[in-house]
Amino acid sequence: MKDHETPNDKLNRLRKENEEKKKKLIEEHGAFFSDMTNENALPLDIESQFLDNIMAFENAYQSAQRTTLYDFLEKPYFRKVEELTDDEVTEALNSIIKLLNDHQVCLDTICEVDDRELYRFIIEELLFENKDDMHIPGMISHYIYEDFHPNHEYDIQHHSYDFLSSYLDKESDYYTTFMTGEAEKEDWHKHFRQAFSSFNLNNFTISELEFDTEKAKVQFDCDFTGMVEGSPDKFSFVGAGEMELLYMWDFWCVNSLKLPKSTVV
């Protein structure tokens, strides 16, 4: 019947089938589907495949047992890291990455990690992580090295820049998500920001960074301008600044900020 249906008939069939699939997902698995406008709606054939994938995942998840990644990989043998030369470590790492990929497991790093350390991490830590014992075509179990071993220097540098660039963006108040709860309750960040109608960030460079596992101090040089609505003057902020961050909830949060004084240009 499907071979002889018109394009209109096919669309109507897919639409009806997709509604039935959604109803089944809602009733059996508590799924929620938001209403989408025609502009944002998926093509019906793609939506059908998407719903099939969700149903396959939910069915597999319901019956899946918990296992270790080592057992999931069928208990492969690996040489100890201290037994390998540098060349052998790289070769062994490539082999284990391929084995992970063949079993729909992906390991990424945000920063550069030495081959020896990455191999050690996999065979001594990652392989003993628990996961659901299920195989679904097209679905990947994704791990990130820094979730286990955070790179604090990298995170502090990027959170500092992200905070300042977001703070100087008057289109939203998203910058508060980078702050500690105590700092967010204070007024210092509101008064300065409200005094200007817009900002333009030209440069942000970290000159010095000190940190331990609980707090960090960031010395930086910045260059940005602030504009006041209805005034032709521009206020230039060029020079050294300072930011203090606290490590809370596995995240570096801004607790205070000092900016250079302004000059009128």
Gross geometry: flat
Q: How much helix is in the residues?
A: 40-55%
Tell me the fraction of residues in β-strands, as a range: 25-35%
By CATH, the architecture of the largest domain is named Roll
State the end-to-end distance.
75 Å
What is the count of distinct domains? 3
At the first level of CATH, the class of the largest domain is: Alpha Beta
The count of helical stretches stands at 9
Mean pLDDT: 91
Largest sheet: 5 strands, antiparallel
SSE string, helices as H and strands as E:
HHEHHEHEEHHHHEEEEE
Structural classification? alpha+beta
Predict the CATH topology of the largest domain: Nuclear Transport Factor 2, Chain: A
Q: Which radius of gyration do the C-alpha atoms yield?
A: 26 Å
**Total count of strands:** 9
Low-confidence stretches: none
Question: Could you characterize what this model shows?
Answer:
This protein has helices at 7-29, 44-63, 69-72, 86-102, 115-124, 145-148, 152-167, 181-185, 188-194; strands at residues 66-68, 105-108, 130-132, 141-144, 198-211, 215-227, 234-248, 251-258, 262-264. The protein contains nine helices and nine strands. The relative contact order is 0.09. The chain folds into three domains: 6-32 and 42-63, no CATH class; 66-148, no CATH class; 152-264, Nuclear Transport Factor 2, Chain: A. Strands 5, 6, 7, 8 and 9 form a five-stranded antiparallel beta sheet that branches. It has 265 residues and is of the alpha+beta class.
